[in-house]
Design a protein that fits this description.
single chain, 10 strands
């Protein structure tokens, strides 16, 4: 089997029509389908939780990344560890969350800092608990 190294340092293997990576971890960013928009292109997802879930390595709790500068979104900026697109700023929408199956991941993109990821987890929890937003 042929292996490659990606921008996030994870080894990947080529499967006909798809790139699959080893298990993703908190802070990783990958492309996967957007379950909220029928027939749309894949979108970027930030992994908020991986190993703590009931099926580690099979699914990930994620928050959506976007290029939309909405007031409730959080700019990623310098929190990219790897995989940043310098021509498009990225934002995280911590209220747009989903469980993404490993088999649905289309391609790895990179990694964000744990500090940023932890802030998005905190914001997500605030939405879930109904706490006041910033």
């Amino acid at each position: 089997m042929t292996h490659w190294r990606t921008t996030n340092g994870k080894s990947t293997r080529l499967i006909p029509g798809k790139i699959v990576t080893d298990r993703y971890q908190k802070g990783d960013v990958f492309w996967a389908p957007d379950p909220f928009r029928q027939g749309s292109n894949p979108r970027l997802w930030l992994v908020l939780a991986a190993d703590q879930l009931p099926f580690p390595g099979d699914e990930y709790l994620c928050a959506a990344l976007t290029t939309s500068d909405l007031s409730a979104n959080h700019r990623v900026g310098d929190d990219w560890v790897s995989g940043r697109n310098p021509t498009k700023p990225s934002y995280c929408s911590p209220w747009v969350i989903g469980t993404i199956k490993h088999r649905a991941v289309a391609n790895p993109q990179g990694e964000l800092t744990i500090a940023f990821t932890d802030r998005m987890i905190d914001r997500c929890e605030e939405f879930l608990r109904g706490a006041e937003t910033e």
